[in-house]
Amino acid sequence: MTQHHDTAEVSRVIATLTREVADFPEPGIQFKDLTPLLADARGLRVVTDALADIASGADLVAGLDARGFLLGAAVATRLDTGVLAVRKGGKLPPPVHGATYQLEYGTATLEIPAEGIDIAGRNVVIIDDVLATGGTLAAAARLLGDCGANVTGAGVVLELEALRGREAVAPLGVRSLHII
């Protein structure tokens, strides 16, 4: 169903199609915009196939709000599984399961429905666009685990290595398609 891809070629495609935006969302930040990558048919296919390799063996894909929804759904389609949208707090009707985590200033919450989806005992892989500080990914893994899922790993398109997000999500294994 999936095949192993040339990691150097996948990384090159991501680098080529990522738009860099200086001083966004604040001065000194070099924002990495993956919109051109996702809007490019080949770029989306290459990334989806590589993430599907990472998620192979999962019986549910969890996509993180919001670009993780797009990627997670594409991966789930490749793997013939379902996708679970892990939402930002306040977007789902009750009852919900939630996990709160620290941001640079304040806190945020991730939620999934508490009814209608049984994830207990299921092998879940988390898919997201960027691993930065790791707070969102760590909270998602904690939330899914607290609900009984077996979170087997995570796959991201881009990892900002200097922000040390991998440390924040340890011991969860994360595979990145492109590291800068």
Please tell me about this protein's structure:
Residues 45-158 form the Phosphoribosyltransferase domain. It is an enzyme of class 2 (transferase). Pfam families: Pribosyltran. Keywords: Cytoplasm, Glycosyltransferase, Purine salvage, Transferase. It comes from Mycolicibacterium smegmatis (strain MKD8) (Mycobacterium smegmatis). The chain is α/β, with parallel strands linked by helices and 180 residues long. It has a domain at 57-179: 3-Layer(aba) Sandwich (Rossmann fold). Helices cover 34% and strands 33% of the residues. The chain is built from six helices and nine strands; from the N terminus they run αββααβαββββαβαβ. Strands 5-6-4-3-7-8-9 form a seven-stranded mixed sheet, sandwiched between helices. A two-stranded antiparallel ribbon has the order 1-2. β5 and β6 form a beta hairpin. α1 packs across α3. The longest helix is centred in the N-terminal third of the chain and has 15 residues, at 41-55. The radius of gyration is 16 Å and the shape is globular. The mean pLDDT is 95.
The CATH architecture assignment of the domain at 57-179 turns out to be 3-Layer(aba) Sandwich
User: What's the N-to-C terminus distance?
Assistant: 29 Å
Mean pLDDT: 95
- The first-level CATH class of the domain at 57-179 is given as Alpha Beta
Helix content: 25-40%
Strand order of the largest sheet: 5-6-4-3-7-8-9
Strand content: 25-35%
Contiguous low-pLDDT stretches (5 residues minimum) are: none
Oligomer: single chain
What's the order of the H and E elements? HEEHHEHEEEEHEHE
Shape: globular
Question: How large is the count of helical segments?
Answer: 6
Largest sheet: 7 strands, mixed
Classify the fold: give the CATH topology of the domain at 57-179: Rossmann fold
Counting DSSP E segments of at least 2 residues, the number of strands comes to: 9
Structural class based on helices, strands and sheet pairing: alpha/beta
Provide the gyration radius in Å.
Answer: 16 Å
